[in-house]
Amino acid sequence: MSNAGDHETSRLDDAARAGWLYYVAGNTQDEIARKLGVSRQSAQRLVSLAVSEKLVKVRLDHPIARCMELAHGLSEKFGLVSCEVAPSDPDAPAALTGVAQLAAGEIERLLKSDHPKIIALGTGRALRACVEQLPKMDCPQHRIVSLLGNMMSDGAATPYNVVIRMADRVNARHYPMPLPVFARSVEEKQLLQQQEAVHNILELARQADVTYVGIGNIGDNAPLLIDGFVSREETRALIKAGAVGEITSWVFDRSGKLIDGLTNDRVASAILHVSPSKPVIAIAVGTLKTDAILAAMRGRLINGLITDEATAEHLLNH
Amino acid sequence: MSNAGDHETSRLDDAARAGWLYYVAGNTQDEIARKLGVSRQSAQRLVSLAVSEKLVKVRLDHPIARCMELAHGLSEKFGLVSCEVAPSDPDAPAALTGVAQLAAGEIERLLKSDHPKIIALGTGRALRACVEQLPKMDCPQHRIVSLLGNMMSDGAATPYNVVIRMADRVNARHYPMPLPVFARSVEEKQLLQQQEAVHNILELARQADVTYVGIGNIGDNAPLLIDGFVSREETRALIKAGAVGEITSWVFDRSGKLIDGLTNDRVASAILHVSPSKPVIAIAVGTLKTDAILAAMRGRLINGLITDEATAEHLLNH
DNA sequence: CAATTAGACGGGCAAATATTCATTCAGACT
DNA sequence: AGTCTGAATGAATATTTGCCCGTCTAATTG
Q: Residues 68-127 of chain B: which lie with beta carbon within 7 Å of strand D?
């Protein structure tokens, strides 16, 4: 017993020595092997033992480090395939620019690919801000498709038309959806979606390689209400039915399940299709939205998230 | 100006991201390159930037780490070619076993070499304890030579006969010095050293590839006094002449210079020869000895040290 | 506006590191 | 004693990393 213990501790001592020489003194494993009088392989084993035994602790002195940890934590906890957290600007915690730049960077990287991609987009302020950050590019190989109508029910254009703006910037083929966001009735919705053009666009959206969406909360300050898509009475009914958030106007409850009936009967938007190889990434910032974001992640409506530090903190602390 | 600053910070941000992914998340630089959308080379540059900008801090959670730091500090401060620090046992701070094991390990490594080596040894409790830790070995290729006589002036054997004990253990040729430690007079010393055998041994000692010695303090509890080599009056005279320590009975002052006259006139031991390729390593423990050790290092009487944590701390804080 | 120059970039290659695998060795158990 | 087992070892090999160098870009200067 005492022998085994001694043996173990002396091995750990050596591991610590090797770890120190490697990480602190910057020796190569060959040098460590020489100094400790063991073979190079053994030195390597000692170093990796020091790591696996958690003897070496690495810390990163930079605000970004916290963001990386939060992103990692969110990915783990909610099984996301992709998660990025931008530093919050303490002066303007609600500002979108950090997140918008981060998301724009990711999209830009995507667009640089030579392989043709289908990119599906929702709407929303965050997404709009992000598109504004995109540089001029020339990407005729890609296609950008809208997930939801660009009209109000009365035919007016919707305020945050992301697809057209983006296609404009990056010069890609694009497919805005020539529909209202909500049909006036279930029958009208079916009628509209039977049009061949609409059908094709919905099919394209289904095949999208990546999908970026915003997330809206439900309540007095809900985007859907503010932008005039749903009435105050409808909002009340939705809340009563347990609604906490919406993505492309599809309203869902606390567990991320779509609400049956009510406005969802008349939503003309494409339905989301999540799979690990076809990420659906939400861009959403703000503590008001945490319930909606949490629900969307729980219900696997999304499998990717781009947010800011403050929101990420809230999400990890329920 | 603001552009340059922004550029720099965003570069550091990326460096921090890369550093985090590399050191915390354990990604390879290829993966980082893919995730950050840059070339592998750039990812490598970012990681090394994070290191050179001191964004990554490594800490080792193990008592050994402190010892390594102390050893490093001592090497730097006193230009040692070799320095090792053993953890002090808090229960028995004066115990030699930690240091003895460490030194034995180093000697064992040396003995494992196939190249014939000449190893010169002094005496002392520390060295003796160290030799006791050596395992049985078979090293006929090496030679072990004594730096100083193994007799009292009256012909009795000296108490800590290290050479014979060690040669016994490792089965090497050995050369004990058939002399008293101190001659009775300058004339006797010259006479003794003119013997051919003694002359050869001294020459061998001069050529030694490595030399291990103890360090003694001077004073009421000096080994030289306790073991009966010098009298109380001689000790007083030595202290008056500025003596603070001795190595192989050669007495030196605060700055590491050998004392002129007094007992040094009659010392029959070999004189130490220090050079970077022929290290002279002291094995010395105890806060009583710090002055002696400091002096020996200052005067370049030694260029290597094996000690324990507590002593090392004292040495570094003057 | 042209010339110069500092710095970033990526290809290619050598060094360093990680992993696999067959072998050895010490201790446990029959 | 013989045999088994599991850990440790070093050779071989695969992967990863670090660095040099020619090229390119963009900013600065005359």
A: none
Question: Within an 8 Å CB–CB cutoff, is residue B50 touching chain A?
Answer: yes
3-class SS at A176? strand
CATH 1.10.10.10 domain residues, chain B: 2-52
By three-state DSSP, how is residue A221 classified? coil
Residue B232: φ, ψ to 5°: -60, -35
pLDDT at B152: 67
Q: What is the mean pLDDT of each run of 10 residues along chain A (318 residues)?
A: 49 88 90 90 93 87 89 94 85 72 86 87 89 82 89 67 86 86 87 86 91 93 88 92 94 93 88 85 93 95 93 91
A41 touches strand D (CB under 7 A): yes
According to CATH, the topology of domain B2-52 is: Arc Repressor Mutant, subunit A (1.10.10)
Exposed/middle/buried for A70, CB within 10 Å: 0-12, 13-18, 19+? buried
What SS3 state is found at A162? helix
Q: Quick check: B273 and B247 in contact, CB under 8 A?
A: no
Topology, domain A63-316 = Rossmann fold (3.40.50)
Ranges of residues in chain B with a pLDDT under 50 are 1-5
Distance CA A285, CA B293 (A): 64
Nearest to B64 among A20, A60, A108 (CB): A20
Residue B252, class by beta-carbon neighbours within 10 Å (0-12 exposed, 13-18 middle, 19+ buried)? buried
- The reply to whether A22 Cβ lies less than 7 angstroms from strand C is yes
Provide the number of CB pairs (under 8 Å) joining chain A to chain B.
93
DSSP string, A233-262: HHHHHHHHTTEEEEETTEEEETTSPBPPSG
State the span(s) of chain A assigned CATH 3.40.50.1360.
63-316
Edge-first strand order for the sheet with A243-247 is A216-217, A243-247, A250-253
Q: In strand D, which positions have an atom below 7 A from any protein CB?
A: 8-12, 15-20
Contact criterion met (CB < 8 Å) for A56 and B57: no
